[in-house]
Amino acid sequence: MNENLIVIKAQDKFHWHDLLDLLKYRELLYFLTWRDLKVRYKQTIVGVAWVLFQPLISMVIFTIFFGNFAKLPTDGAPYPIFVFIGLLFWQFFSSSLADISNCLINNQHIITKVYFPRIILPLSLILTRFVDFLVALVILLVLMIYYGIVPSLTGVLVFPFLCFVSALASLGLGLFFASLNVRYRDVRFILPFFIQMLMFVTPVVYSSSIIGRHSWLLAINPLAGVIKTARSEFLHSYSTNWLQFSLSALACVLICLIGWWQFRKAERYCVDNL
Amino acid sequence: MPDFAIEVIKVSKEYKISHIELSGFYTLRDKIGAFFKQPLVLLKQLRTKPENFLALSDVSFTIGVGEIVAIVGGNGAGKSTLLKVLSRITPPSSGQITVVGRVTSLLEVGTGFHPELTGRENILLNGAILGKTKAETLAKFDQIVDFSGVGQFIDTPVKRYSSGMYARLAFSVAAHMDGDILLIDEVLAIGDAEFQRMCLGKMDQLVKDQSKTIIFVSHNLPAVKSLCPRSILLDKGSIIDDGPTNEVLDRYLQRQESFNLVNSQLSRSLASGLLTLDTASLVNEAGQVTNSFDCDHSIFVNFTCSTERPSTAFYGCLTIKTADGTIVWESFSHDYSANPLNHLRSGANHFSLQIPPRSLAAGHYQVYLSFSQETSHDIVDDVLVGNLELTDLSTSKGNNRNGFFSSLISWKNI
User: Fold this and answer.
1) Mean pLDDT of chain B
2) In this structure, is residue A67 part of a structural domain?
């Protein structure tokens, strides 16, 4: 089949061809990521340092209030590093989710004028946030050295997988919201509220062990599994519940498939609604 | 390998004017609110079929490799929708399109330009958005910069560019993004006259490069005429004409004339109410009202205008245009110092303007009259007197003479 032959039809079934298409546009993925990184901190005083400030300031505030005053149990780990692991993944997840949910709306001036595989937009947003994540990771390293904590080997090995699962979670939910967002503009306003609620049911500032024997319920929340596993492998405060983590990962894949399926429907017709 | 570039088979595009928007339930909140407030109303609305609007209906055509085709039609004829469907921005509701070759769609110049990025960065980004690899864009980079003329400002953020520079750079990137098939929409509609000339020149260059297939949507009929040998005329979403551009455009402009004004009663008055144009017609030397003339006889434009009381300071203008709006000739009542419209009697005033033989070349023209008044600048704007069909019967070149004049000169050997 000629690679330049395109058939445009009303019904569009998934075709392996689409993946090839994605490959053709991989440079666009790179350029969009690069553009977002480049533009985001232009005309700000401290520039890229914002990437460090955000988790750092959150960590300090949380440590003062939840660590010092509320004295939340951390299963033996120092509170700053305990909360920072949570924040690291949480901010990666929540900022990606917020960006992706608005990706079709925010880029409507492009998508109403040019064709490209729309999935490039959310992917580039995740990549952008992942770069932030990597920068913030430096703080974690500094904290680990300061507290003299050495992660387990499995921890280091499983770390990329943890990032991947968080990315999948934000992608899945984000794609779902992005497709809703095209039809109902109030998704934009619900979203920040929703993300805040989500933070309370995710063990970011507290340890999942405070819920006691019902803590397995948290496994449905994909990010809970990620943060729990990261903490157990990095801080050795308890042994990892791999079954729970697998459930979380599975939930992620499921969310992602649903989101993607929704997004595929939306991406074709969103231009008519925008 | 198919021998066409684009094949469109029975393509329709339907837009739903959905009940949600009609009833104002734009948001999820409204919808949920409505569910509690007026559950019956909502149920009824869900049952009623949404109204559909056919932006394209059963459109079929084939475009060969290397063909340059214009898509013309009035506002809302479906031109832009067709282009969006062809460039895969929105899917058709039914039908099938087969495209062979790499498509570059230029529905807008400067798509994805970011004000914070420099000219250089925007060129690369824009190239990527239009589906080009970095290597491909870089290969054209110098040409793009040269053509845009932004030169030394290439590393300045484009937000500091003048709007002219911005437009030139944007167009320059677009014009150098060649694929096998170019879909171009109204790109020429922006910018000043100089910029438009530049764009047309570049288009011309692209057209002459025979290997490309180009689909061009534009309101600029002279440009369409000079660039595209073939035109497709859309009206209300259907193709109503397809053929050589000259013929299609002539028929299109004839259709546009909603009324035939030969001999019709005109009753347009100046806003001030001082002057009324009562009748206007084209008359031949025998005194008959007609719209076909030949070059060897005079054409008279007769009109009657009336005022309620003797008035002064009116000016008249006779304009002859070609079908696409190019002004061929203008004549003013005050071309000489004594302006006959300057002293109108109360009641009807009759005028007869003679266009001498052998002034205009054979062809189709439109004759317009307009009036203004010095004090108020009120204008009776371009009232169509009639369509003028001129034939040249006596010269050997006859109707095949190009240009706008038919004046004859003698070729003397001295």
Assistant:
1) 79
2) yes
d(CA B144, CA B173): 6
Put simply, the answer to whether B91 touches A39 (Cβ < 8 Å) is no
Q: Does A8 reside within a domain?
A: no
Q: What is the pLDDT of residues B179-233, one digit of tens each?
A: 788 888 865 556 566 777 777 777 777 777 767 888 888 767 777 887 888 999 8
pLDDT digits (tens, 9 = 90+) for A88-106: 999 999 999 999 999 998 8
Q: Do A8 and B86 touch (CB under 8 A)?
A: yes
- Closest among B402, B247, B259, B388 to B322, alpha carbons compared: B388
The partner residue sitting opposite A2, judged by closest CB among B100, B114, B116, is: B100
Interface with chain A: mutation pick from B28, B57, B138, B186, highest number of A CBs within 10 Å: B28
pLDDT at A145: 92
> What residues make up the domain containing A254?
16-273
State the residue for tokens 């837009």: B15
Least confident span in A44-48, B40-44, B54-58, B181-185: B40-44
Q: How far is B127 from chain A (nearest CA, A)?
A: 9
- Choose the closest CB to B15 out of A7, A12, A272: A272
- Answer yes or no: is A2 within a domain: no
Domains of chain B, first to last: 4-255 (3.40.50.300), 265-400 (2.70.50.60)
Looking up tokens 């058709």 gives B92
How many CB atoms are closer than 10 A to CB B247? Answer: 11
Chain B residues inside the 8 Å CB shell of A7: 96-99
The total number of structural domains in chain A stands at 1
Question: In residues, how long is chain B?
Answer: 414
Give the pLDDT confidence score for residue A120 in this predicted structure: 92
Q: So what's the pLDDT on residue A164?
A: 94
Instruction: State the residue for tokens 């266009």.
Output: B355
Residue at B59: amino acid letter: V
Does a structural domain hold residue A4? no
pTM of full prediction above 0.80: no
- Weakest-pLDDT range from A2-6, B20-24, B63-67, B407-411: B20-24
Q: Which of B1, B90, B124 sits opposite A2 (nearest CB)?
A: B1
Nearby residues of A271 by Cβ (< 8 Å), 6 or more positions away = A111, A112, B84, B89, B90
pLDDT score, position A168: 93
**Residue B14: closest C-alpha in chain A:** A272
Show the tokens assigned to B305: 């205008």
Closest-CA residue in chain B for A185?
B27
